[in-house]
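Exercise 7. Given the components listed, write out the predicted structure of the assembled complex. Treat all entries as one system.
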Amino acid sequence: MPINFRHDVDQALKDAKTQHKPLLLDFSAAPM
Amino acid sequence: MWPDDRVVRFVEENFLPARVHVKEDAELFQRYGERYKAAWTPTILLLDADGVEHHRIEGFLPADDFLAQLMLGRARLAFDQQQWADAERRFKEVVERFPDSDAAAEALYWAGVAPYKATGDPASLKATGQAFKRRYRDTPWAKKASVWA
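Answer.
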């Protein structure tokens, strides 16, 4: 069960504000 | 870290997850890496809805330790937002579920602080100081709590 990561961070920050939900931001170099 | 079902569940329930890949999202990595001073991968930041950082996890961790850190960070978010009862419950959950993790001693410390912040009653600080005489005695958190016992 993979995590559904968003890649549009700007939009994710806007959504976090709208939904009043914290954001987990992963800086990764893992193979995609 | 990420393939663990418990981690996936906790993240989905508690956060909006976003990823910046150092190579695939190079422009974003430069922008957000500079903004949040993320100079290494993996770096995981727990941000509030305004984008303010409250917890940082740098480097790989085994799943149990990683989940404990995520739970600690979520508790810290509640604490920073002065949600004292929620923070206390979350800090205690870290200690109960992952007593052998590095996060546990820190969680025990803040689990004592949260009720004090809520009530001003120092009893929880004293109890926490005493608890550190029995557990996690060789941690920096035990030193910090020693003044309470």
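Discussion: Strands of chain A lie at 23-28. The longest helix of chain A spans residues 9-19.
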